[in-house]
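Support case: MU-OXO-diiron complex. Customer-provided input:
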Amino acid sequence: METNRLSPKIAQALNDQMTNEAHNAQIYLAYASWAADKGYDGISNFLFRHANEERNHMMKFLEYILKRGAKVVIASIPAPGPDPLSVNDCFEKVFQSEVENTTKIYAIVDLSMAEKDWATWNFIQWFVKEQTEEETLALDLLSKIKVAGGANAKNDALYQLDMELKNTPDDATLAQDVTVEKP
Ligand code: FEO
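Agent response - structure generated as follows:
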């Protein structure tokens, strides 16, 4: 009796995305370690927390593949790439990486629609919303560094930014959650 509810193409796409999320975690771990080494403990703390979020994303794909009766394939994780050159470069790379991840999530939306796999379509909507949040969070980081002077930010501005990021929440507020009373 066939108990696998995922097509080979969708199972492959979900397994690939599971590895992508593990790769995203490695990127945040690498940048967090770079920031700690440079003395930016607040930025490092923020990035370490975010690495955990990416591992959680990886687990959601893993669990979904299992629950749909398909095979989980644990593959090697690509290296995170070179260290950032500066805090500005770090935040630009974070944003770029999130945008690239959104493109991959949208490709799974397309595939689930093409195959009329509505369970997968429903599952992946969680990630569509999550990517909007992640891009918003990354854009907020870019705005903060811009205010601090962007690529030319001075040490005192970077110090303030570092202090602030230690307590920055992990989630950004989405436009649909904003009200007139609470803009
Ligand atoms: Fe799981 Fe930041 O994307």
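The pocket of MU-OXO-diiron is lined by residues 21, 24, 54, 57, 98, 101, 134 (CB under 6 Å).

Case will auto-close in a few days if no follow-up is received.
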